[in-house]
Amino acid sequence: MTTYHQVKVGNAIIGGSFGANTGLVVGSIFYDKHSVVKNPFTGEFDETRAAVLVDQVNKLSKRYGVQMAFDVIAASSEAMGRYLEFVSARTSLPILINASEAEARVAGLEAASRLGILDRCIYASLSIDTEDSELEALGRNRPAGVMILANDVSDPTPEGSCSMIETYYLPMLKEIGAAVPIVDVGTMDAPSIGLNIRQIQVVRERYGYPAGCAFSNCFPQWTSLKQLGKEWVNLSLGTSLAVVRAAGGDYLHYGIIEKAAVAAHVAATAEMFYGYAAQELDRYKLPEGHALWQMFKLTTEQI
To answer: DSSP string spanning 159-170?
Structure first.
């Protein structure tokens, strides 16, 4: 029987037996060309507007009873430090340290250590391009969670993901002392979400690791859908979240933070079903404020 491992990040619990905990619903802030960012390299941004976005996610998470997180994306080390300080001061939710450059990710670890928030951070992420400097930094400053990108473009099958975990990531994880990673199986385009579903199922069953994907990655190139309008994009986004979660997905990246309300509502609707089954059939005690209870308290109050 598979042991489903959990990763505790701040007050959130990621993974475990299906339905016992809600999935982690993640949105990006300070991403490339985000309108709140004034200078991506110095990290100057509109603090008033950014604070509104952070506060909205805080309220959505509590109102809907779903675990949510901030994917902090930075273009430079300086920007990363400023962003992490700002976000961490305004939320207790998990924070992903994310950047395209290794130097900025390492700076994020150092900033998180300095700010005393490593226990609620996730390193995003280890990949085939991971540099030695990152492993050394992770050895010095261990965040609560470490994400791995198990997506083999030459073999985008469940076995391809498992092969990457076995041959590439397990030695790396052992080196930094991370026993349980969060597995991102990688989304390439809209049809590949079907592959992601199978990958997530196999990774969870074989290793018991929390797994999921950034299904939102498929939407920028889905031009025919965008031509239908925002409402239709949101419907497909919500469908993607629900089917990935139904496959056992623990990591649910919905894209830009401006989509938080849509993601929270869809996630809470699904978690109500899964949580009730886990409670009644598997005898799990759901946490106070779970989506099962919150979805019956909704009002017309605007977030």
So the answer is: HHHHHHIIIIIH
